[in-house]
Specification:
The complex is a heterodimer.
Chain A (H helix, E strand, L loop, with lengths): L1 E5 L3 H13 L3 E5 L2 H10 L4 E4 L8 H11 L6 E6 L5 H9 L4 E4 L4 H8 L1
Parallel strand pairs in A: 1-2, 1-3, 3-4, 4-5
Helix pairs in contact in A: 2-3
Chain B lengths: L6 H67 L2 H12 L5 H20 L3 E8 L4 E4 L13 H7 L4 E2 L3 E2 L4 E2 L5 E2 L3 E11 L2 E11 L17 E6 L4 E3 L1 H4 L11 E3 L6 E3 H8 L3 E7 L5 E8 L5 E8 H4 L1 H47 L13 H37 L3 E6 L4 E4 L1 H7 L3 H4 L13 H14 L5 E6 L5 E12 L5 E10 L1 H56 L9 H31 L7 E4 L1 H19 L1 E5 L7 E4 H18 L5 E10 L2 E8 L6 H4 L23 H11 L3 E7 L3 E9 L3
Parallel strand pairs in B: 22-24
Antiparallel strand pairs in B: 1-2, 1-8, 3-7, 4-7, 5-6, 7-8, 9-10, 9-15, 11-12, 13-14, 14-15, 16-17, 16-20, 18-19, 19-20, 21-23, 24-25, 25-27, 26-27
Helix pairs in contact in B: 1-8, 2-3, 8-9, 13-14, 14-18, 15-16, 16-18
The chains are: A alpha/beta, B alpha+beta.
Chain lengths: 116, 765
């Protein structure tokens, strides 16, 4: 299962990649929203782990871009963000096509649970 | 007509007199002078001529007698008889006959000429041997001048003398003092002069031709001898009157000096006196005097002075009367003008004065005709229009006065000394001083003390330039209130254009200032708001940054730990190593919790927390909490009691309720004693509210600390050696959350015995 990690924090991406590989997945990381959009448009991914606050294009931008433009959409897009959300934000993000919304304070095991 | 004499009358009179009398007088003077000149020279000529003629005539008359006497003396009979008389004895008949014949001869001669009073004959020795008058004394003629002259062959004429005896005059009347003279002629015989024939001639009765003739009624002419004795005058020709002794005296009219004009004539040869003198009769006359040739007599002609100068006097009279008439005419005309011109003018002048003094209620007499009437008429209409304009002015002034007096703006009138002469009601009211107390005070008394110097400079500028417009000055009222005002002046000038003061307008702009202050305040508030907003935004951003930046490093930390703890690595770690990794994970989680709390506290502070209220089954919630704390409590050896019974659903935010409870429980675990610690969680229902409590048997909280425990970052144990950690945010978060859900939170505590926190929430059931 191919998983795309879109997060501007390299360390997070590296560790998460390691963890996901350990769990048997095929993770790829990109470090900004723009490249995330390009990646999703050019390659198929089964799952996307999406950070919210990023340079060039935010998580919301990414969600907006890929919502209709991608013929073969990722099965699940899990938003994994350090920024706490208000209810409105949550509703907005979910309406844009996110499958789940997780705070970064939750550990990787819960993230994997949400991905599966 | 009553005349009010004013200077005008006299002026006009004087003018008229100057115009009328002076030229007349001058003209008259010239006329008189001319006339006098021509008259006097004519008179002089006439006088001199007539006197000369008369004197010559008289002289001729005397020489007629001389010639007659010569005729007698040259008579042959007389010579013959004289010879006989001389050459015969006195007593001889020859002598007697000769005498008789002479008597006859002389007698006939005397009859021929009545002016010959007597005739005598003397010999060459002067002895009289024949006389026609026997009473005549036989006086030797030897020393007499007339005899001497005759003896030398000429005619001898004696001086005039009075007869000294009674003699019959021309009219047959005897007179004692007839003026006579003796004329002697030599009697020439064959052998030369044999004797002298002498005749006494009566001088008083000359023939009429010898008197002066002049065309004057009062002409008086007479003959005098050089001793001022009357000899002859026409007046006496037909009178028997005694002839007066004549004194031809003239008195100088200027000095009053008496002049003997005969003496004067002899001395100076002046023969005309036109100045005038008193004659023997006492009449004022002018006269002329001329010597009668060959005698000691003089001829005098006099004319009454008044008659002589009658033309001039008439001229003078005419002139004086003309002047008089003129004077009267002028006075009359002046009076006429006074009444018809000056009086109306004077009235008009009086009216003008009144008008000048401001009295326009004057009556102007516009009766009559002519320029005065026109003037009065014009003046009357001028006064009318003046009245009208005055009335308009008065209305305007009244309007202005009202504007000034009732204007809401502050008005005052000041002089150049800065003294207030007047002010309006608004002014008095604004300054809180009665108007009568303001008037007479200085403008500087109304200026706020710190603005006095500035005001003085403004005032000086005004005096120099006359300009003040919208100058801001701070004033001070009686109560000490200071207010800003804008000063503008409306200058007042005297008739010479000199600045004497101003009407000053003061606009009270304190409202403007208030508005300005309010605006500034609003601006400040807005700025503050803006700042707050900005700060809030910054805080929001800070919130995001804190959560993002603090949490982000935790992810790889926890992630790495989870990799290590993953089942793939489980075998590779020793038990100690696993514990270390687990410690890293749990501390990371604590850090997560702390971050959450900070964020939550911030959210609550900024009212950013969104409560999602719903009816919550609190029993379940608390049971879940108990489940999750169970192991921890056992581990800490704390008796954890759940005394929840059946309670209704609570209307609240479930997360918030969870947070409050866990915060209170966490808090309690900090303060319970290490041994026999006890925490009880329960709830009571009361008046539609559910009151939860978390009770511990901890160290308790002092009364003063109880008041502050809900403050943010308040530490119950703030000593340096504090044994209890935490940020001091828990209770503050609890209070905010409870209050945010319309609830109440309180604390009951006793030091050393324990603490109970109560919080109540609404229940809709």
């Amino acid at each position: 299962m191919k998983i795309l990690i879109i997060d501007d924090d390299h360390e997070t991406c590296n560790v998460l990649e390691q963890y996901l590989k350990l769990q048997g997945y095929y993770p790829t990381s990109v470090y900004d929203g723009k490249r995330g959009i390009d990646e999703i448009k050019s390659n198929h991914y089964d799952r996307v782990i999406l950070d919210m606050s990023m340079p060039k294009a935010s998580g919301i931008d990414v969600l907006n871009e890929i919502k209709d433009a991608v013929p073969e959409k990722p099965e699940k897009i899990v938003v994994y963000s350090a920024v706490p959300f208000s209810k409105e934000d949550e509703n907005l993000i979910m309406s844009k096509g996110a499958s789940a919304l997780l705070s970064k304070k939750v550990g990787f095991p819960q993230l994997v649970q949400a991905l599966v | 007509m009553i005349l009010n004499f004013s200077s005008y009358h006299f002026k006009i009179l004087a003018l008229a007199l100057c115009l009328g009398i002076v030229p007349t007088s001058v003209l008259g003077g010239i006329l008189i002078f001319d006339n006098l000149n021509s008259n006097t020279s004519k008179l002089e000529n006439e006088l001199v001529l007539s006197t000369t003629n008369a004197a010559n005539g008289y002289s001729e008359w005397i020489f007629e007698h001389v010639r007659q006497l010569e005729g007698i003396s040259s008579d042959k009979q007389l010579i013959s008889e004289t010879n006989h008389m001389i050459n015969s004895d006195e007593n001889s008949p020859e002598h007697f006959f000769a005498n008789f014949n002479l008597e006859t001869k002389i007698g006939s001669e005397l009859e021929k000429n009545p002016n010959f009073l007597e005739i005598l004959i003397c010999d060459t020795d002067g002895n009289v041997f024949f006389t026609s008058d026997i009473s005549l004394p036989n006086v030797s003629q030897k020393n007499e001048s007339h005899f001497q002259n005759a003896l030398s062959g000429k005619i001898g004429i004696s001086d005039v003398f009075l007869a000294n005896k009674s003699l019959k005059n021309k009219f047959g009347v005897y007179e004692n003092n007839l003026p006579t003279m003796l004329i002697s002629s030599p009697i020439i015989g064959d052998v030369g002069i044999i004797g002298v024939l002498t005749a006494r001639v009566d001088l008083s009765s000359p023939s009429s031709f010898s008197f002066a003739e002049l065309d004057y009624r009062s002409v008086d002419s007479y003959v005098v001898n050089d001793e001022n004795y009357f000899v002859a005058t026409p007046k006496f020709l037909e009178t028997e009157l005694q002839k007066p002794e004549l004194k031809l005296l003239a008195s100088n009219p200027l000095s009053g000096e008496i002049i003997d004009i005969i003496q004067n004539y002899n001395d100076k040869g002046t023969n005309v006196n036109l100045i005038g003198y008193s004659n023997y009769n006492g009449d004022e006359v002018i006269g002329s005097i001329f010597p009668i040739e060959g005698t000691d007599m003089l001829y005098v002609v006099e004319i009454n002075k008044n008659e002589a100068f009658i033309d001039i006097i008439q001229l003078q009279i005419f002139l004086y009367s003309s002047i008089g008439v003129l004077f009267s005419l002028i006075v009359s005309i002046s009076l006429y003008f006074t009444s018809n011109l000056v009086t109306p003018i004077k009235k008009l002048k009086d009216v003008t004065h009144k008008v000048t003094e401001g009295n326009l209620d004057v009556v102007i007499d516009t009766k009559g005709k002519g320029e005065i009437h026109d003037l009065s008429d014009s003046f009357s209409s001028m006064v009318s229009s003046l009245k009208e304009s005055r009335s308009l002015q008065a209305q305007a002034e009244s309007k202005y006065r009202n504007l000034y007096e009732k204007s809401p703006a502050l008005h005052r009138t000041v002089n150049t000394e800065g003294i207030i002469l007047d002010c309006n009601e608004s002014y008095a009211k604004r300054f809180g001083i009665p108007k009568n107390e303001i008037v007479g005070t200085s403008i500087f008394e109304h200026v706020s003390p710190e603005h006095t110097e500035y005001m003085k400079s403004v005032f000086e500028d005004w005096k120099n330039s006359g300009n003040v417009f919208d100058t801001e000055i701070w004033f001070k009222t009686k109560d000490g209130e200071k207010f800003p005002g804008l000063i503008s002046v409306n200058n007042l000038y005297d008739t010479n254009g000199k600045l004497i003061g101003s009407n000053t307008l003061i606009q009270d702009i304190s409202d403007f200032y208030k508005t300005l202050e309010a605006q500034e305040e609003r601006k400040n508030v807005e700025q503050e708001m803006q700042q707050v907003k900005h700060l809030n935004k910054q805080k929001d951003e800070f919130l995001s940054i804190v959560s993002h930046e603090l949490r982000t490093p935790l992810i790889p930390i926890k992630g790495n730990c989870e990799i290590l703890l993953d089942k793939n690595f489980a075998d590779q770690l020793t038990d100690d190593q696993r514990k270390f990794v687990e410690s890293i994970v749990s501390n990371s989680k604590r850090l997560d919790v702390l971050i959450d709390k900070i964020l939550l506290a911030q959210k609550l502070d900024l009212n950013k927390y969104q409560f999602s209220m719903s009816d919550v089954n609190a029993t379940n919630l608390i049971n879940d909490i108990f489940q999750s704390y169970n192991s921890l409590m056992k581990q800490k050896n704390i008796q954890f009691v759940n005394s929840i019974k059946d309670i209704p659903k609570v209307f609240c935010d479930e997360n918030a309720l969870h947070e409050v409870l866990t915060n209170l429980i966490n808090n309690a675990t900090e303060f319970v004693p290490p041994e026999n610690g006890m925490i009880e969680v329960g709830a009571n229902t009361k008046d539609g509210m559910v009151e939860f409590f978390v009770k511990d048997n901890g160290i308790g909280i002092s009364k003063e600390k109880q008041e502050r425990i809900f403050d943010k970052f308040y530490q119950l144990d703030s000593t340096h050696t504090r044994t209890h950690g935490g940020l001091g945010l828990g209770l503050a978060i609890c209070q905010k959350l409870v209050k945010g859900m319309d609830g109440n939170i309180r604390v009951m505590s006793e030091e050393g015995k324990g603490t109970t926190f109560y919080f109540s929430l609404r229940s809709n059931v």
